[in-house]
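Revision sheet: structure tokens.
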Amino acid sequence: MFLSDQANPPPQDETSEKVKLATKTRDEYGLVMHLVKTNPQPYRHSGEGGGHRAAGTYHDDASKSKEMKMPELTYTGMDIMPLPVYDDDAPRLALMIMQSSNLNHRLCHRTAANGADATETGDHTKAAVAPSLEALQGNVISGHTGWVRCLAVEPGNQWFCTGSNDRIIKIWDLASGQLKLSLTGHISGVRGLAVSPRQPYLFSCGEDKQVKCWDLEYNKARSSRVIRHYHGHLSGVYALSLHPTIDILVSGGRDSTGTGQCWDMRTKASIHSLSGHTNTVASVQTQSAEPQVLTGSHDCTIRLWDLVAGRSRVTLTHHKKSVRALVVHPRLYTFASGGPDNIKQWKCPDGKFIQNLSGHNAIVNCLGMNDDGVLVSGGDNGTLFFWDWRTGYNFQRLQAPVQPGSIDSEAGIFACGFDQSGSRLITAEADKTVKIFREDDTAVRTSLACPCSHFGKTPNGTEFFPSIPFCLVVSQL
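Predicted:
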């Protein structure tokens, strides 16, 4: 009856296996099966390209690279095959499928503006996207058994951590993508994470009403790594932020009054209860300058808080729907908010409105920002939009593919963030995976996605010059 009771494994029916494989192939690749070569030849890295590469990138020719090897994953390979180019002026999504010997299928959607990559003969009616194969190599990390809801990158840029609905916090090596440690202790989904830049502490919060402090240098049992509990929330805690200069932790959640809490990180004492929101606090951000605490809520408002007095100094009511994400610019005195309607930019300290960033046809769940002025937004339909912070120009769009075994409704992106170098983007997704995207150092202006009719123009007609010193194209792993 059981496999262990048999001397040999039960035989598999060859016909059934073929039918199952054919069904999966048709479901996953039915729309592009006619583009695949009969006998594809594996891509071989030429070693020529040069240029800087972010740590943790991988090469097909291991003898020419001393970087860390890709962890062993059960993936198969297939050549890259672009879709036919259309002879019209409308922007098109160029869908490419590439599977190398290291990685599973990867889909990269890029919008090719008309005239973006015209031939030398002067024919500007054809647009094509020709990304480097090297730029499309990377990693899709699996291990969680539930939706991955949050992530945080360690200040030393050696590892990052993720929290999931499976109640587990996992710590991963940033270069190799290998699992280093799993932390158990939450009894419900983990919704927020923060890593201290001054102490070896990791902070977490979840739907179990708990806020925990983990000592990462503690050598005893994994469950006893929790050294502090912060009690005070009466319902699920959905957001967490650690103050960058002082030992204060701010959390927010689904309390009936929409209350946020400011904690003394060392004594576990509640310093302030930030009352004012009338619904769930979905996002929290802190900064060293005033206002030191920002909160976004499902009551469609953003509040800027006086940390000393513990009361709201400004309430922003521009959003018509819930505010699900906040991000603070690391160098400028500005911040952005995102929700189902659009993304808005604001100026501190009084929350002066700057501009709207529109284009997402989905709920914006998360925002990320790097030092080069690149804003990334992730939607619940798996789309990633890249914006120039200064001009509000959307210069690239990506569609994260749903992994095998998942359905289209599991394409949502719940959290995203750049590493400390700003050249790698990490996303936490509903298909239970973590994806790492890296910068394409071979990209040129013609390979950027352009939603308007001319690359040098923004939708409002002004000239577009990226505030970054190079063309940033983030290619999916």
